Amino acid sequence: MQVVVFTGGGTVGHVAPGIAVAVALVQRAPARLVWIGSKDGIERRFVEALGWEYRAVPTGKLRRYLSWKNVTDLVRIAAGYFASRKVLKELQPAFVFSKGGFVSVPAVWAAKGLHLPVYSHESDLDPGLATRLNQSASRLIFVAYEKTRQSFSAGLRDRVVVSGNPVRAEFFATAEPGLSQLFAVPAGVPVLVVLGGSQGALQVNSLVQKVLPLLEGRVYVIHQTGENWQPLPDTPWYASRPFFRTEMPALMQGASLVFGRSGAGTLWEAAACLVPLILLPLAEGSRGDQVRNAEHFAACGAAVVLAAEATAEDLAHAVFAALEPARRGQMQRALKAFGAREAATLIVEALGASGSLHV
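Structure (tokenized):
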């Protein structure tokens, strides 16, 4: 049986699309899946929960600012390279598929050094640093948006394939249990799902806390607060949980609207379930990828973007406007055009056509 190695991690957004590709891949061609990631990264939890093989290697963070940790982390990255090389020499995979994040860089270049085929996927509108570092080692670079092609040099654009962003198959099948079995949603009432991030997005959570009196009696709010946020008590119109692990497909399928940041995972999972978006992108302390992701979805008519200084009244207005049937229908048609349901299949077909995947 052929071996296929996946690598990437650091955030759910770097892991979930890779899992979607891996699942689609084994449905097309039998393969032994192995994931190379960091010792304590979020990717380990997801991969091992699926029962897949996981190989941990040393990792260092890729920082865009001056820090003494950049020096020490170079040593860790070098160690990650040699550890990845050892794993790859043992496995002799058909190819390595990178989903980005700092952990992917040593594995990708170890594969390149061993003359193994490498394929990369970028979820954001603007390629991240890991993708830029991995691009010249990659035979094909899958991207979510046509516009992203222009971010690569002319010499690399013939390697770029616009695939969309893969979404796990659970978002396409009817979720069991469904939303009505998980929460006491009043019959006929629209549901606003708020995603405050895994740790807790202060700006999002604070705004939701303030808007609740304006929505009560008209909208049921389900709030993922993040694990570092003190949740509010549940009411007949509001429920909060620190983090949703297995319930996300049911939430997306049952939601009328989603409000949160604009990471690629949130955007494309909502697109797969045709749920209109209200976005408050993370601007400070980031490379600006969320802002540009959000602007792109808004320009396509699939989302409403709130300003950083948005008030509870602004959020309430956006919620009620997006719930109007005509507006909601327009946004759903825009979301459908992203083709989220086809992305994983398109990637696997391209891998098969490349000759690296033996079907």
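The radius of gyration is 21 Å. The mean pLDDT is 91.
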